Every structure is written in C-alpha cells, then in structure tokens.
C-alpha cells in the first residue's frame, strides 16, 4: 500500500513514517510544508512531497495523487492560537478529505482526540482544538471515504508498549505517540476498522487485536 502521511513532521507522524518505512508491505510518502523538513523524513524511509494545508484543495490533490491511503495526523501545535487550529485541524483536514476524493483515494485514516465526539468532556483550556476535531470527524463520517477515526487519549513520549485499550470503559486516559502510530499501521488494511471511530489509550491488548474489537 502506498501511504501518504499528512503531518509527517509531527511527533506521531515521525513514528508513523519510521514504522511504515520498516514495513515491507507499505511505501510511505510524507507531505511536508517546506523542503527543509525533507532530509530527516527521507532518512526514516519516506519519499517527500511539498504542499501546504493552507493552500488549495487542487494543490493538495496533486501532491497526494497515486497514493492508496491518506493518514491525517497534522496539527497546528500547542503554541499557536485558535485561528491556526481552525485553519489546520479543521479546514486542513477537510481539504485533505476533499483532495483524497478528487485524487481517487478511498482509504483515509484520521488521528483525532479522545472524547472529540462528546462536548461535555472537552477541556476548557483547549476547547478550540476539540471543536476542530469534532467537526472534522463529523465531516469525515459524512463523506464517501473508507475512513477510520482513531481517538487517542493524552499523548506521551513513552516507548510504545504495543498494547492498548479501546471501547467506552477506559481506565487510562493517555497513550504513547509510538503506540498511536502503530495503531494507524495496523488499521490501514484492517477492514473491520472501516467506517468506525475507535477510542485508543494504553492498555493490555495487542494493538492489532484491540482495533478489531
């Protein structure tokens, strides 16, 4: 599978690029904002292509054309304001969906956030982020794409354990970025994850098994 990663230069994205680059079943292409980011990602095994999520849908579609799947794990980052969150986490995500449809790519994996679907559980301190994730998820669910939405808990830099918990009754609220990336890889070709949103935190079930539950 030829996998295009949007947000490849982020912390989850770099883990994902590395894991895909090590997987003989996949080829990985990293969509980056500027060419300065290329060398590090190419060392991890990716081809790179330059496009901006604040550009046009047509520009993004041209950059991702030829891929079999798109993974959206981009984010504006914690140091930007609500305006960038709106432009990247919401509008950028929607542009990526539209670009995938325009380029004839059916498979789309979204990295969202735990409780994005439930307004009652949104932290007040990062509410614009959750608003963006909520509506991006809803628009993906309304699309014609074969989507999977992964909703990880609070992200840590711990070494991945290869085991997670899914479902509604979750005791943990966090997960390592490496395990999120591994869950994306496991979900890509797992048809039981199609048209589903999956909560994801650290746990005791092997990732490939957990995402099928």
Topology (elements, then pairings):
Blueprint: E1 2-6, H1 11-22, E2 27-32, H2 38-43, E3 47-50, H3 57-64, E4 69-72, H4 82-102, E5 107-111, H5 127-141, E6 146-152, E7 154-156, E8 163-165, E9 174-176, H6 177-188, E10 196-202, E11 205-206, H7 207-210
Helix pairs in contact: 1-6, 3-4, 4-5
Describe this structure in words.
By secondary structure, the protein is α/β, with parallel strands linked by helices. The chain is built from seven helices and eleven strands. The protein has helices at residues 11-22, 38-43, 57-64, 82-102, 127-141, 177-188, 207-210, and strands spanning 2-6, 27-32, 47-50, 69-72, 107-111, 146-152, 154-156, 163-165, 174-176, 196-202, 205-206. Strands 3-2-1-4-5-6-10-8-11 form a nine-stranded mixed β-sheet, sandwiched between helices. The protein has a two-stranded parallel sheet with strand order 7-9. Strand 4, helix 4 (82-102) and strand 5 form a beta-alpha-beta unit. It is globular and about 40 Å long. The mean pLDDT is 96.
């Amino acid at each position: 599978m030829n996998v295009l990663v949007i947000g490849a230069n982020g912390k989850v994205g770099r883990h994902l690029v590395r894991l895909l680059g090590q997987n003989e079943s996949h080829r990985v292409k990293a969509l980056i904002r500027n060419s300065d980011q290329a060398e590090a990602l190419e060392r991890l095994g990716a081809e790179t292509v330059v496009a901006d999520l604040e550009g046009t849908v047509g520009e993004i579609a041209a950059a991702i054309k030829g891929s079999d799947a798109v993974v959206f794990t981009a984010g504006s980052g914690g140091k930007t304001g609500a305006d960038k969150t709106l432009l990247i986490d919401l509008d950028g995500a929607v542009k990526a969906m539209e670009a995938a449809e325009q380029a004839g790519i059916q498979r789309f994996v979204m990295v969202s956030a735990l409780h994005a679907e439930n307004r009652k559980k949104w932290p007040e301190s990062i509410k614009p982020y959750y608003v963006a994730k909520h509506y991006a998820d809803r628009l993906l669910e309304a699309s014609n794409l074969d989507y999977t939405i992964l909703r990880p808990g609070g992200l840590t830099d711990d070494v991945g354990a290869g085991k997670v918990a899914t479902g509604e009754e979750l005791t943990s609220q966090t997960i390592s970025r490496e395990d999120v990336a591994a869950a994306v890889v496991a979900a890509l070709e797992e048809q039981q994850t199609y048209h589903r949103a999956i909560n994801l935190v650290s746990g005791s079930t092997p990732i490939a098994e957990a995402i099928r539950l």
